[in-house]
Write a structure and sequence with these properties.
By secondary structure, this protein is α/β, with parallel strands linked by helices. It contains four helices and nine strands. The strands form two sheets. Strands 1-3-2-6-7-8-9 form a seven-stranded mixed β-sheet, with helices on both faces. Helix 1 packs across helix 2.
């Protein structure tokens, strides 16, 4: 496994950073993948939002014939609900917790930090937030699923978005995760869009509105 200590891509606000979004990419992408979205979210300078886009380490991925690529954890079966790589998820959760602690050390309060992730990245963001006693400002869970429905969701705000035509992460699997999160006590703001495993322009606008509300 390589690349675990690479510095994330960071976009600083115009003034002092007073809030932060730590955003994890999906399988095979890197920290630059969601970099272009930040300016399109319409966040006012007054919120002082710093964006942190870490790079997943490079590791062999079983369902891709063992080919090494950036991945937050291994995928062993095309059916994502089967044989979750819990140790790999745990390693990435620890990494995200360290990134969050770094932001707190710069003076940004935990309740001003949003954890975000697309697909694999969303799995890690959700798992991290469920395991935290003091919750972050919220979680952006995009085109993702819940690998392990355990933890405490009370006090957790989740924006969950999914494509109606997603063949990679089936909508039914995402809906199971939504229902499990609610059963754990989380408040889930659910959105579906006419798209595949991707990001929809309407979704970007909705994310911006949700972030403005959470970080106001």
């Amino acid at each position: 496994m390589t690349g675990t200590n690479e510095a994330p891509v960071v976009i600083e606000p115009a003034g002092m950073a007073r809030a932060c979004v730590i955003w994890l990419h999906g399988l095979g992408a890197d920290g630059h993948d969601f970099e272009p979205i930040a300016p399109g979210l319409g966040l006012p300078d007054s919120l002082g939002v710093r964006f942190v886009f870490p790079h997943a380490p490079v590791r062999p991925v079983t369902i891709n014939s063992g080919m090494p690529m950036r991945a937050w954890f291994d995928l062993r079966q095309p059916d994502l609900a089967q044989e979750p790589d819990l140790s790999g998820i745990d390693q990435s959760v620890a990494r995200l917790e360290a990134l969050l602690a770094q932001q707190e050390a710069t003076g940004i309060a935990r309740e001003r930090i949003v954890l975000a992730g697309f697909s694999q990245g969303g799995v890690v963001a959700l798992e991290t937030a469920l395991g935290m006693q003091d919750k972050p400002a919220g979680v952006l869970a995009l085109s993702t699923w819940l690998a392990r429905p355990v933890g405490d969701g009370h006090g957790l705000q989740v924006f969950m978005a999914h494509g109606e035509h997603d063949s990679i992460v089936p909508p039914a699997l995402a809906a199971q995760g939504r229902d499990a999160l609610r059963a754990l006590g989380a408040e889930v703001d659910w959105h579906s869009y006419p798209m595949a495993h991707a990001v929809h322009p309407s979704e970007v606008a909705d994310i911006g509105a949700w972030l403005r509300a959470r970080l106001a």
